[in-house]
């Protein structure tokens, strides 16, 4: 149901349930959680890319499964999808959502858990949960307003409306709209390559400083930045960058 492909220092995690619009049933969530844990443990993986197979990125929770569940099982599923997306958000590597099609409900929350979102033209995104009598329960009520502001987030959630790729770019939800699915992976991998040229330890520490700092005051965030900087000072990568600068060559970072 989910495939992990390694392309040099990039891990591509692909949900492969096109017949169900890549919906998340419980077994799929368990598998995704395990793969996220796998890439977290691999220092050689420097960028993680998430995508789907077929015409949808993900339509969210598998409602065919959901109607068969009792309240305890529903709570179990919601807790699992929330935990999985939190795991993605906490990955030390930069993460890219290659949004190959519609991203609705939990599928939209999945892309919100990533650092960057690049979308194909023609895709629709939205938090549609209130139309089913529930609320976004996998981070949508928290991540979306932090990304686009309270008013627009409330509008999207309260109306359950779907917006197109161009509007998502205008709102700041996605950073780029790509004309076709065929070009999407090429663009995402090119973006990943831009990050791969830089020090992997430095990128991880910068991500940690940014993510943690957003939950603190500026003065506390600056202390987090100082701690992150202290981590990179003794690294071989820092010394390699200085040598490369002096020798007028491209640094060869080893993540050490």
From TrEMBL:
Statement: the UniProt record of this protein carries the keyword DNA damage: no
InterPro entries: ClpP/crotonase-like_dom_sf (IPR029045), Enoyl-CoA_hyd/isom_CS (IPR018376), Enoyl-CoA_hydra/iso (IPR001753), Enoyl-CoA_hydra_C (IPR014748)
GO biological process, one term: fatty acid beta-oxidation
PROSITE patterns: ENOYL_COA_HYDRATASE
GO molecular function: hydro-lyase activity; isomerase activity
UniProt keyword annotations, A-Z: Isomerase, Lyase
Family per record: Belongs to the enoyl-CoA hydratase/isomerase family.
Name recorded for this polypeptide: Enoyl-CoA hydratase/isomerase
Organism of derivation: Exiguobacterium sibiricum (strain DSM 17290 / CCUG 55495 / CIP 109462 / JCM 13490 / 255-15)
